[in-house]
Give the backbone structure.
Amino acid sequence: GAGVSQTPSNKVTEKGKYVELRCDPISGHTALYWYRQSLGQGPEFLIYFQGTGAADDSGLPNDRFFAVRPEGSVSTLKIQRTERGDSAVYLCASSLYLGGPYNEQFFGPGTRLTVL
Amino acid sequence: GQSLEQPSEVTAVEGAIVQINCTYQTSGFYGLSWYQQHDGGAPTFLSYNALDGLEETGRFSSFLSRSDSYGYLLLQELQMKDSASYFCAVTGNNRKLIWGLGTSLAVNP
């Protein structure tokens, strides 16, 4: 596709449930990033991948959060035992390569997660 | 710690010029980026400064002073559609973006 896509666009779940959020980056982009954003805040870094490997997962808030990118393209963010505090917009971004002269990241539309 | 500071809100009128400042304190510095985000939308890239000086792209310009750990985004000939949040972000160690809290710009007729 022409841009970064994320599915689902909205996800409502109950506390304690498991959710998966999917990101399909721009074709050919090797770097992929996950952020979450709460209302009135800037994006909060979660994890990024260079290829298939997680280059930095220091932003994952706890071990309930996990992300994979098995073939170096599509990525899935997985949240176990969801809590109400996990409610936010989860943004995915990709860039051509990691930290080059123009570290332009292209963002998807986000997944709005609501935990009831 | 790492931090970026920018004003929380700015108001201006159509046709005016507005400057949004950003000061930063980060572990490592490769460059300063600016992103625009409309309500309900995704952030979109505006500019990137790795070296000192002014970069101009149409109505938007961005400035960086590495010695002062300071940059700004300059928006000229403001239009109603420029009403949005503007984020500065630093590419720091590990080449990841560290984001400010954003500046909400309201452009009035």
About this structure: The mean pLDDT of chain B is 93. The longest strand of chain B covers residues 18-25. Chain B touches chain A at residues 30-31, 33, 41-45, 48, 50, 87, 89, 91, 94-102 (CB under 8 Å).
